[in-house]
Amino acid sequence: MVIFRQKLFALSATLFLLGGFLLFPHFGAAQNIGKKKDDLTAIEKKIKESRGKIKETKKKERSIIGEISRMDKAVKRNEKEISYISYKIDNTSSSIDDLQEKKKYLEENMEMMEVVIEDRLVAFYKLGGAGYLPALFSAEDYSDINRRGKYLSAVIEADKQLFQNYQANRDAHTKTIEKLTKKRDELSGLKEDMALKEVKLKKGKEKKKKYLVEVKKKKSSYESALKELEKSKKKLTALIERLKREREKKEKKTRLGHAHSSPGAGGYFSRLKGRLPYPVKGNVLTRYGKGKDPKYNNPIFNKGIEIKAPEGTKFISVAKGEVIYADYFPGYGNLMIIDHGDNYYTVYAHAKSLYKSVGSKVQAKEAIGSVGDTGSLKGACLYFEIRHYTKTTNPVGWLVKK
What total of structural domains would you count in the chain? Predict the structure, then answer.
């Protein structure tokens, strides 16, 4: 046994030494693999950093007008969400008022029924333990028993109905309180959501304001924004031209006798020169024609005028016509184009809200939107221009003198 153990120990020792000998040559290779893994991790880190720099560079190179558009749309989404939550708050508050009225009505009913029930219980108690039986047994003859029986049946049925009505009112009262509690919790949740959305909206507006300040500070960024605005002006002209062709094509199919089917066709608009109302009250920030931007003295050509007015102020259509465009347009923000017939168009931009949609007929001096700062580099104002065909004309010459 001892000899066996000695042999087993010798064999184990031999195998251990042999294993170490066989593994030893690979030790250097393992170190080499570890080093390569470290190198690979370092390379991946550098790639990640490079991607971050590329992303940051692309962000800086992103279109300024495009970035403003993105911010405007984010603000608009928040405003829509707030408007929807506000609508739900109004509905929920109205439901709460209705439930409170119902609760009050049920409580008044229950109070009246409790008085009657109390009187009935007192009367029943006075009859003693026998209840209605003495009244029945004190009858003088069979016909009297029959008459009293009918009377007692009616009394019992009335009492039964009274208790049933009371129970139904009580059940309805309990359910009303449950609904009221649920609606109040819902209202509380909506108000919390509203507060969060309002904070988000405020941050979005502040972010845009800060971004515009940064753009104006940096000359290259500001000049880039002006160049993009020039491109937007050309795109607007192209849009009006396309809308004009589409309208003419449509009217050709319907065989109309004049140039346009809008409410202002037949020389109506041209006769209003010098008599049109201002679309909104306020000082003119930017005048029509050649000029220089006040920041860096770059030459510019303004195709319309910008009128300073508080955000949310309603603006009007200067004449009757038909809305042919009402949507967001890069560089102009929320924009509306009205066709007044005979190839005359008015353009309103930077709106916070547009009250009319494509195809809407509008009257002179009718409110069509509210002043905003969408697409604007100058804050809240209304951009306004007048075009004959696609050519712009000085709006001041058309507007009534102040």
Answer: 2
The predicted pLDDT at position 320 comes to 95
Average pLDDT, the chain: 82
Full domain range(s) for residue 388: 259-397
* Pair of tokens at residue 324: 């042919």
Statement to judge: residues 263 and 196 lie in one domain: no
* Backbone conformation region of residue 316, classed left if phi is above 0, alpha if psi is from -120 to 50, else beta: beta
pLDDT for residue 321 is more than 90 = yes
Give the domain CATH number at 330. 2.70.70.10
Q: Do 187 and 326 belong to one domain?
A: no
Residue 386: strand pairing partners? 346, 393
Type and span of the H or E element at 251:
helix 219-254
Q: If we measure between CA atoms, which residue out of 268, 396, 399 comes closest to residue 340?
A: 268
What pLDDT, on a 0 to 100 scale, did the predictor assign at position 20? Answer: 46
Per the listing, tokens 């319309």 go with 304
- Under 8 Å between Cβ of 93 and 184: no
What confidence tens digit (pLDDT) does each residue in 140-187 have?
676 766 777 777 788 888 888 989 999 999 999 999 999 999 999 999
Cα separation, 215 vs 281, whole angstroms: 29
Nearby residues of 103 by Cβ (< 8 Å), 6 or more positions away: 173, 176, 177, 180
